[in-house]
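We modelled the chain as a single entity of 459 amino acids. Its sequence is:
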Amino acid sequence: MSDQKQDVNRRDFIAAGGSVAAMAAMMQAFETRAQESEGKDSARRTDDSTPPVKMGLIGYGPHGREIARNLVQLPSAPLVAVSDNYGAMLRRSKRDHPKANGYAKYQDLLADKNVEGVIIATAPHEHKEIVLAALKAGKHVYCEAPLGHTLADARAIAKAAADNPQQNFQAGLQFRSEPQRHFMFPFMRSGALGRAVQARTQWHKKTSWRRVSPNGAREKAINWRLNKQLSPGLAGEVGMHQMDLVNYFLNLKPMAVSGFGSTIQWRDGRQVPDTVNLVFEYGNGFSLTQELTLSNSFDGEYEVMHGTNSAVMLRGSQAWMYKEADAPLIGWEVYARKEAHYGKPGVVLAAGATTLSKGGKKLYQESAFTQTPIFYSLEAFAYNSHQVKTTVADLVDTFGEVDNETVVEFLKEQLAGTNSLLPAADAVDGYQANAIALKANEAVNTRKRVEITAADLTI
């Protein structure tokens, strides 16, 4: 299966002007994509012929282990090395992945010439030192989000990525790579919502965030999320991903944020609230509210965007559109599958679930994109790293040594300009989401309205 055949051409769609005709063309492209992929395994967007990029993983905590489990399913991203400075975790990595080299120091992993790409899954306050060293060592870098626990750290990481364009840098904003969200991108940019009015996201999960260890120093280190000096709080650890998705879909950036938080459930001496509410203000009157809690799990997590013509809800790998009674008829929605929620039928907007017609019989194809967002984010990192590596090699072979500006322009022309990369968040995306989330966490901690300026969002 060719991943490029599976993507709607966004440039062609935007050029069509977001008209009703463009919407019809987009949905026809969705149907064609579903028909082409019927009966095929779409869990991966790359196939077994994709050249592998050998991966090193730094940090083998809970999230690092989740990353490793996903890498095992990706032939394009073999795990060849793991580093963790805590002996028990390093030994566990060797049991789980006996073929991967184990290193107590990340510097030794970076010196391993077999490692081509590095995935950094440590605490945010440790990212800057590791990212800068990895780029200096010539590695492609995937840095979990948030990039840094301070604006200065995040900016330093983004600048270092810009200074090393010959290496692929990806920020861990997983929703940017997830197929269902990417499937929705042209739809959300088409104007089907009408005028964007407001959005709301929520994340409810009863979990303490506290981790235990028989080693006192280790326990203090692994509980950085509960340390006010190191933690970006719920706004940075969770809310950032949903906030970034709304901003990305609607092409907006907030101008201010207000918030407050409290500790309701986990009164264990922590300095970071377990329940947070945020309101983001935008220059056009649009607003985004976020509800985040570690104290209750009811109703899980989702994002909903309201417009004058319709509302769109995304929950996991599913999405629905709820039209207003006075909204203009687009056409395709009359025949699309509908599901009832909140007492009202919602038009299904799911990747691979478009209505198909064969021999006069209508049928549906359920989405085959069943993996978690981190899977698709890592897949994009491996694929895009290979694309960058080979493109830069072609440039150097042809012209010899070249400067960074030439590399950037060549990559833009050869890859970005030809839609040859899988969707992923770059350093600028990661920095801007990081900056907004840190401002939100500041609003929670101070209980004040905090402005977000253009300078804050500039590297």
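As a brief sanity check on the tokenised model: The two ends are 38 Å apart (CA to CA). Confidence is low (pLDDT under 50) at residues 1-24, 26-42, 354-358, 360-365.
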